[in-house]
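Researcher: We're reviewing a set of sequences before deciding which ones to prioritize for further study. For each one, I'd like a predicted 3D structure that I can look through quickly. This is FUSC family protein. If possible, include the structure in token form so it fits the rest of the review sheet.
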Amino acid sequence: MSSRIPLEVARVLRLGRPPEIWFKPALSVVAAVAPPNLTLVALDRLDLAMYTMAGSLCALYAHNRPYAARARTLAWVLLGMLGGLAAALLAASLTGNAVVLVTVGAVLAAVQKVLCDATRIGPPGNVILTFVSSAALFVPQTLAEIPGHLALGAAAGAWAWLVGMAPGLLRPHGPERRATAAALRAAAAYAESAGEHDHAGSGGKHDQAGNGRAHAATALSAARHALLGAGRATAARQALGRLLDRAEIALAAPADADPDLLRAWARDLRGTRPVPLVDDLTLLRGEPAPRDPLWARVRPLGRLAVRTALGCAFAGYASLALGVGRPYWALVTAASLYQASLTLTWGRGVQRVVGNLLGVLLFAALVPLAHTGGLALVLCCAALNFGAEALIGRNYWLGSVCVTPMALLITEFAGFQDPGRLIGERVLDTIVGALIGLLAALAVPDRARARVVRSGRGTPRTLAGAEHREVPHPDQRTQSDTTEGVRP
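Model: Here's the predicted structure for FUSC family protein, in token form for your review sheet.
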């Protein structure tokens, strides 16, 4: 038992491989955040940057979705962001009571968590929405200022929407091409592992082949989802569908598959090369199952809503009792923990604490540079935005090393502050938020949801079973499935 905990900590801190398109979200968020903030620097109104950041951070979403689906997703994210911001600003204008404001923030966090999970909005999920709305609760506000501040957020959000859609001008089929290439590579890996198992016959090889098949089935289903959400069936998309038919055959009959050919097709899908043409096998794929209405997907998440609200509220109350001036940091920490199982929630807590503690050290190193002026402050935040998106795909804690100093620097847009006090409050809020968030997860278990997660990890017995089992699209996964995306 004494060696088990260190091993588990090492497991949750282990670095993974970077996502294939890690640089695109990183560049997109910089392109979305920098112009509005630099404009405010030129106007000497950097104190308004919190409102433009609300819209700019929408650029973090939907990078793996086809452009038709991405346009809708980004629009809904922006509406959700502005709705949460409006509720927070209204509350801030009506009361200065910190306990009331923390309670409002906890309720907003629960609503944002449930809606993001029910709609499978994808990473970074609810945490960005909760960060913005919670921070806005503690900014002095009047009713007359709210429309103007929301207009700033909407303008920056419209720019973020354009940034998110811009790559489609050069590669209109890019997301579905990447999804198809991933399915082909996974099918090739499974065909090889299945062939090795046939020759070796060992238990270890059998487990490896089973895991490879589950991974390939997931990648195949994700690619089918991408094509379904891509819009009209162009010649290129029809060719991608035929390549997926070949990947599906490789899953059904791995002994007859050619892994080298599958990988060659995947390589040909890079860039703007023509899509490889293969014969139409006219496989019967069936009709996609209709999605349940939103209310039906929200209803099973009641316990998750209670857990999120209680954890965020008590984390904020504890922070207030300890005299911290920014209790929303503890609130956001608690909101960021809740995953699909208690084990994953505990792992996220470890990642959050480690990343934040290292992040405050980076903040301390950057403060002398950032305090030289507003332009330096904005450029430091832009660099940290890039670093967070570039690194968080490796592991959540690694991205948090950049996210933490970025969040601390954002608080200084309205004026430079004592770095020692900021560091002390951030460390305290991180520990308080993580501990109380975990206690709320223990107090309000969601066993039904955990059973769904465990059952979803099983390898389907047949290819048809893999097709009919609900496997999430890469950008529909919850935060328990991926670490992609900035989370303050």
